[in-house]
Design goal:
Layout (H helix, E strand, L loop, with lengths): L1 H6 L2 E6 L4 H13 L5 E5 L13 E7 L11 H9 L9 E8 L8 H12 L3 E9 L7 H18 L13 E6 L11 H10 L3 H10 L4 H17 L4 E3 L8 E4 L11 H8 L3 E10 L9 E8 L9 E5 L4 H10 L7 E6 L5 E2 L8 E3 H8 L8 H7 L6 H10 L6 H8 L5 H8 L7 H7 L6 E4 L8 E3 L7 H5 L2 H18 L6 H29 L1 E10 L2 E5 L2 E4 L1 H7 L6 E7 L15 E7 L4 H17 L3 H10 L4 E7 L2 H4 L3 H4 L6 E7 L7 E3 H6 L17 H7 L10 H23 L3 H8 L7 H7 L1 H9 L3 E6 L5 H16 L5 H13 L3 E2 L5
Parallel strand pairs: 1-2, 1-3, 2-13, 3-4, 4-5, 6-8, 21-22, 21-25, 22-23, 25-26
Antiparallel strand pairs: 6-12, 7-8, 9-10, 9-20, 10-17, 11-15, 11-20, 12-14, 16-17, 18-19, 23-24
Length: about 850
């Protein structure tokens, strides 16, 4: 019986990149939780085997980029496709997909998920797709799918009505500091009485949802009323707001633990604490784009190449204080939060049963910067006394006709900040309402530039003690033996000499081993790894008066050295191909803008491997320079002087890369072959090209992944430059069947040169690489159609070379390349 009731729980899981699938999941959760026991998680937080504990699994997944799954579904996706599970016949899956039909791989994640689950014997009870290009966006199909899911649950279990009341998942206890010491009861002793203060309405909803357990529910309600009567003199319901979940209790704050941001994120949530040690702007202040090179340190020993750091951002303090002041909420007050519905489990970062400052609650956990979802206006309509505004809110929350919502909210990207600025004088909301209706802050991912072999830092440690760390304990004991032997010979022997000698030897050996073990422990706990990030401030000019900034990029750019951020490390798609570190494979890098940072880690890793392949520099660099089997980098930027952040560093990688760069906004010299220009060096070793503002030479050299970088030696640079000039002349025609002058001639007529134009000019070489099995193609570019345009270009190149093949056959060939990760698009995922 217990196992049957356990399986009657519903698993509600989502995979979301920008929060739309998460909002859809919240909508379903708020409407169903009074009737069912629901577990609400992102897919990465659950294992596929947990599906067997549920009779109904509801999944809402988004497709991002060129058919990629989202960051918070990656682990689940890999596990699902690696193992062959067989699901029970009485397990029912309800899938809704979110996508954009303007992309080629429209809603491909939901489609693949359905196909995979069906192959494992899953029963797909409901399935539908939402399209952002539809006049009603995804809302119409989502409402249809949601209605079908609810009808299915009604037929299978019992009839229920969809709840549109304001959710009361959390209760809030306001701590009055003036009453400290007046009440000696602890928070735990009062938890039962506090739960009873939810009111009769919540109990009726719970009783309606569990008709089979009606007597038990009524008993709990009676006990709750009795407890309320006994403690009526200790609790004061805030009648001014009419909120039954917000209670002011005479409690001793000392009896409740304080919320500590470091302890909560590191211990409770298993995040890692990173210290910001450098935040340097790479672009001139007059330039429209703010790009930062940020260095973080943390005690982590290993991470894979091009791994992702998933950062939990905090809201802007000044803006949050302004909103709370407008809403007449004292952000300096302290509260204690408790989950009301113990039968529902959901993944939340919000600390419960701890005393937390209201400002910290909003800044650390509640995303006021997110675009408002329609169902929030339904709840807001219950918090206004103005009939005009109530009608307006209901119109904005009506998903059957989204014209008002689209025009007022979606087009202008209005966030919760903006809504509260607009309507603060017409609404009466409190902490409990906001806590139960606002979305949680979600992590954002950034690529790590360096490799784990780059930097190992020791913090607050004496480097002279490293001697004792590296010497052999036996050798140290031998040194002590010689000292003791010298002492015994110097002094006249006596009866106790033998015992003194052996005793001192044993003690010295034990002392040496203890000291070395202490040093090893100390070094391990002071060992910090440096992480490099390239962060570009995301901003959109919505209109003349409004500029929208990305929450996480703005948070990182404003982080000062010495401050801390909280994040986790996650593998990217690049790690799916194990041949990334195989120098027998050729890699083609195609990137635009700051997205190139996701590929830089691979380039640095391969540079490290090439340099370690031979023990001597001269033996290694000579054959590599004359080889045509180098990796190829196609890079598209706007401006050479402003956007080529890693120009000086890239000079160190020319011995195993051909580098082609297109500048779309450059008035002249819009294309150059980096190898050719560096080969035109003056005899002294200086280049005849100007280096941009951005990363200085000292940082460029320190950014290289190994201390054996040849650029540090002037003699080696001169030798390398001489060979490079010769090698470039020999290799360029052999590798690409045309000279640099011919390439420039084909591109000089174009007003703007893009990276796809360079690929078209070198299509013969690109075609040969596409057909080879030892080629890996990495594409990185967040420009909306970039990956799609690259894939279409590949298809056209193959079609020109193999005209007898149909486009279906060509697309199937490219799809296989993508499935085995020989072609990786959106490499930062």
């Amino acid at each position: 019986m217990e196992a049957t009731m356990k399986r009657r729980r519903i698993l509600l899981a989502y995979g979301s990149e920008f929060g739309t699938a998460y909002d859809c999941g919240r909508n379903v959760f708020y409407e169903l939780y009074p009737h069912f026991n629901i577990d609400f998680f992102c897919l990465n937080d659950i294992h596929v085997t947990t599906f067997y504990n549920y009779e109904n699994v509801i999944m809402i997944v988004s497709t991002t980029g060129y058919g990629c799954y989202t960051h918070d579904i990656s682990k689940f996706w890999i596990d699902l496709h690696k193992n062959n599970y067989i699901f029970y016949e009485d397990m029912y899956f309800h899938i809704f997909g979110l996508g954009d039909s303007s992309y080629d791989n429209y809603n491909v994640v939901a489609k693949k998920l359905k196909k995979k689950l069906k192959s494992l014997g899953a029963h797909i009870a409901n399935y539908n797709l939402g399209n952002y290009q539809h006049p009603s966006m995804h809302f119409t199909n989502f409402d249809i799918w949601k209605k079908n899911v609810y009808d299915f649950l009604r037929k299978k279990y019992f009839y229920f009505q969809v709840v549109s009341d304001i959710p009361c998942v959390y209760s809030v206890l306001k701590v009055d500091s003036s009453l400290e010491g007046e009440h000696e009861s602890s928070w735990k002793d009062k938890s039962a009485n506090w739960e009873a203060s939810k009111g009769e309405e919540a109990n009726r909803e719970e009783a309606r949802g569990e008709e089979a357990n009606g007597e038990e529910a009524n008993g709990e309600e009676a006990n709750g009323k009795e407890a309320n009567g006994k403690e009526a003199n200790e609790e004061e319901i805030e009648a001014e707001n009419g909120d039954r979940n917000s209670v002011r209790e005479k409690t001793n704050p000392a009896a409740v633990d304080h919320y500590n941001v470091g302890e909560h994120f590191c211990k409770s949530l298993q995040f890692t604490k990173f210290e910001v040690v450098k935040n340097e702007r790479c672009t001139d202040r007059s330039y429209y784009q703010d790009v930062r090179l940020i260095h973080l340190i943390a005690p982590l020993n290993h991470f894979n190449v091009s791994s992702l750091i998933r950062i939990h951002p905090f809201l802007d303090e000044k803006r949050t204080k302004e909103i709370l002041n407008l809403l007449k909420i004292n952000y300096n007050d302290y509260i204690i939060i408790k989950k009301n519905d113990i039968n529902c489990i959901f993944n939340t970062y919000i600390p419960t049963k701890k005393k937390i400052k209201i400002l910290d609650l909003f800044m650390h956990f509640l995303d006021l910067n997110k675009i408002v979802t329609p169902f929030f206006f339904i709840y807001l309509s219950k918090k206004t006394n103005s009939e005009i505004h109530k009608k307006k809110f209901l119109q904005l929350g009506n998903t059957n006709n989204i014209s008002d919502y689209f025009g007022y909210i979606y087009q202008d990207k209005r966030s919760y900040y903006d809504i509260f600025y607009d309507f603060y004088s017409y609404i009466n909301i409190d902490i409990t309402f906001l806590l139960n209706t606002l979305p949680s802050i979600k992590q954002r991912a950034y690529s790590i530039l360096n490799t784990s072999q780059c930097y190992k830092l020791f913090k607050n440690f004496n480097f002279f003690n490293l001697y004792y760390f590296y010497i052999n304990p036996s050798f140290s004991t031998f040194i002590h033996f010689l000292k003791i032997n010298y002492y015994l010979k110097k002094n006249p022997p006596n009866f106790f000499s033998f015992y003194t000698y052996n005793g001192l030897m044993v003690k010295s050996a034990i002392r040496t081993l203890k000291y070395i073990n202490w040093l090893r422990y100390k070094i391990e706990h002071n060992n910090n790894t440096l992480f490099e990030l390239l962060v570009c401030l995301y901003h959109i000019d919505v209109n003349q008066n409004k500029k929208l900034k990305g929450l996480c990029s703005d948070y990182l750019i404003n982080s000062k050295p010495g401050s801390f951020i909280y994040a986790t490390i996650q593998n990217s798609l690049i790690t799916m191909n194990k041949n990334i570190g195989n120098i027998n494979y050729r890699i083609v890098y195609i990137s635009i803008g700051a997205a190139f940072s996701s590929l830089l880690g691979v380039i640095r890793l391969r540079d490290h491997l090439y340099r370690k392949h031979d023990t001597k520099w001269e033996k290694k660099i000579h054959p590599m320079d004359y080889s045509t089997d180098k990796d190829i980098i196609f890079l598209g930027l706007r401006n050479r002087d402003k956007d080529f952040y890693f120009q000086q560093e890239m000079e160190n990688y020319l011995h195993f890369n051909y580098i082609f760069v297109a500048f779309s906004r450059q008035p002249e010299n819009r294309f150059f072959f980096f190898n050719k220009e560096v080969s035109q060096l003056a005899p002294g070793g200086e280049t005849n090209i100007d280096f941009p503002h951005g990363i200085p030479a000292s940082d460029a050299s320190s950014a290289a992944p190994d201390v054996d970088a040849h650029a540090s030696c002037v003699a080696e640079r001169t030798l390398a430059n001489r060979r490079l000039r010769c090698a470039t002349r020999v290799c360029e025609e052999k590798a690409f069947n045309m000279s640099y002058a011919q390439m420039k001639h084909l591109l000089e007529e174009k007003k703007k040169v893009y990276v796809t134009d360079i690929i078209s000019v070198l299509q013969d070489s690109v075609y040969e690489l596409l057909k080879k099995n030892n080629t890996i193609i990495l594409v990185a570019g967040k420009s909306r159609p970039f990956s799609q345009n690259v894939m279409k270009l590949f298809a056209n190149i193959i079609k020109q070379k193999e005209q007898n093949k149909t486009m279906e056959e060509i697309n199937l060939f490219l799809k296989k390349k993508m499935d085995d990760f020989s072609i990786i698009l959106e490499s930062w995922y």
